[in-house]
Write a structure and sequence with these properties.
The chain is α/β, with parallel strands linked by helices. The chain folds into 2 domains: about 190 residues, no CATH class; about 170 residues, Alpha-Beta Barrel (TIM Barrel), CATH 3.20.20. Helices cover about 40% and strands about 15% of the residues. It has 12 helices and 13 strands. The protein has a 7-stranded mixed beta sheet with strand order 2-1-13-12-11-10-9, with helices on both faces. A hairpin with a 2-residue loop joins strand 6 and strand 7. Helix 2 crosses helix 4, helix 5 crosses helix 7 and helix 6 packs across helix 7.
Length: about 375
């Protein structure tokens, strides 16, 4: 197989990641991808898409796995980076698995959107929503078929990530688009709470159903964020929560999140945008939560330029992951000093002309 990653490097990833999760690695994790490697094979006929959902049904899972292999063969994995791929059907695809419409945007973003199912020609009322586990759902079966094809092709050399099931309220907001669900929280909180817990239990059912397939092939766990874990790991989220206050967060989000963290050994939270900072103290108070991913949002300085946020998370005993640049990480290190317990995933793929620069940076932080 042409992917440039041998068992010895996998052993290092496993060892260092285990120490990082345990708070025992005396350095940060730093992942970098350098492009320009000769794959030693022709490029597949199908294009390389970020959203796997863009591939029509007549593109087979085997073709998708072949495209993933080609992409992974064109790069060098530097520092703590490792080969991974995941079936990207949009954040919150579990809504589609339970009846919502999945639509790929016909623009340059290629974003996936979810629309509520129609009932009698109109949108469902809150009390008409029926949530259930559907093992024969087309999206679930498609995702599992892709995982199987990739697993059979890669064995344990490539970590296949869990698809992005979504956060509980985010999934519900696909059935009741955001403004309607906001009114529901005020007008029918008991009904919303009931649906939250139904979704909560179904979320675990969907996760375990897909994870059972992933376990046949994967050396560990990962998802859309390429943290590697040898124990169950997932990046939780609730993008909806930037629109609600602390009291509603405690009732409709935190209880669900805290309960899931009790069985998801290495649970992380995706803190997306400054609007979610109001909930950070509440999130950090969850004992079983292992860490927080900080994404400031469009138009804001990169995550590394928020030393107060990073410091607060670390002082709470949680790990931190963010996407950023070498320059930003150096600036953060100058501000806070100790950067243990942090994972930097560098944005973009670097050209080979910068190889010496990348090696110098990795050496500086003990990641080479």
């Amino acid at each position: 197989m042409p992917i440039d990653f041998n068992p010895q490097r996998w052993n290092r990833i496993k060892t260092d990641s285990a120490k990082w999760w345990a708070g025992e690695l005396k350095r940060p994790l730093i992942q970098m991808i350098m492009k320009g490697r000769d794959p030693g094979r022709p490029e597949p006929s199908i294009p390389g898409y970020n959203f796997t959902a863009r591939y029509p049904d007549d593109v087979t899972p085997e073709q998708i796995a072949d495209r993933w292999e080609y992409n992974l063969s064109c790069v060098h994995f530097m520092g703590d980076a490792f080969p991974t791929a995941w079936p990207n059907y949009g954040a919150g695809v579990m809504a589609a698995m339970m009846g919502c419409e999945l639509s790929v945007a016909a623009d340059t973003t290629n974003t996936v959107w979810f629309y509520p199912p129609k009932k009698g020609g109109g949108e469902m009322a809150l009390d008409e929503i029926e949530l259930k586990f559907s093992p024969e759902d087309k999206w679930l079966k498609r995702i599992i078929a892709i995982i199987e094809a990739a697993g059979q092709r890669f064995g344990d050399q490539v970590q296949i990530g869990m698809t992005d099931l979504g956060g509980t309220l985010d999934i519900l907001s696909s059935f009741r688009p955001s403004e309607a669900l906001l009114f529901d929280l005020i007008d029918a909180p008991e009904t919303v709470e009931k649906l939250v817990w139904q979704t909560h239990h179904l979320w675990r059912q969907y996760f375990e159903h897909i994870d059972k397939v992933l376990r046949k092939y994967n050396p560990g766990w990962t998802c859309w964020t390429s943290l590697f874990s040898q124990q169950p790991y997932y990046m939780f989220q609730c993008d909806f929560c930037y629109m609600i206050g602390p009291d509603m967060f405690e009732r409709f989000v935190k209880k669900d999140l805290a309960d899931t963290c009790k069985w998801m050994t290495n649970g992380f939270y995706h803190l997306d945008g400054i609007g979610e900072l109001q909930h950070l103290d509440s999130i950090l108070a969850i004992p079983e939560l292992k860490g927080v991913q900080w994404i400031p949002g469009d138009g804001k300085p990169g995550a590394a330029y928020w030393p107060d946020v990073i410091t607060k998370i670390r002082k709470a005993g949680k790990l931190v992951q963010f996407f950023g640049t070498m320059e930003g990480f150096d600036a953060l290190a100058d501000k806070i000093g100790n950067v243990e317990g942090i994972c930097l995933i560098c944005q973009g793929w670097f050209p080979q002309s910068r190889e010496k620069e990348l090696e110098k940076f990795l050496l500086k932080y003990g990641a080479l």
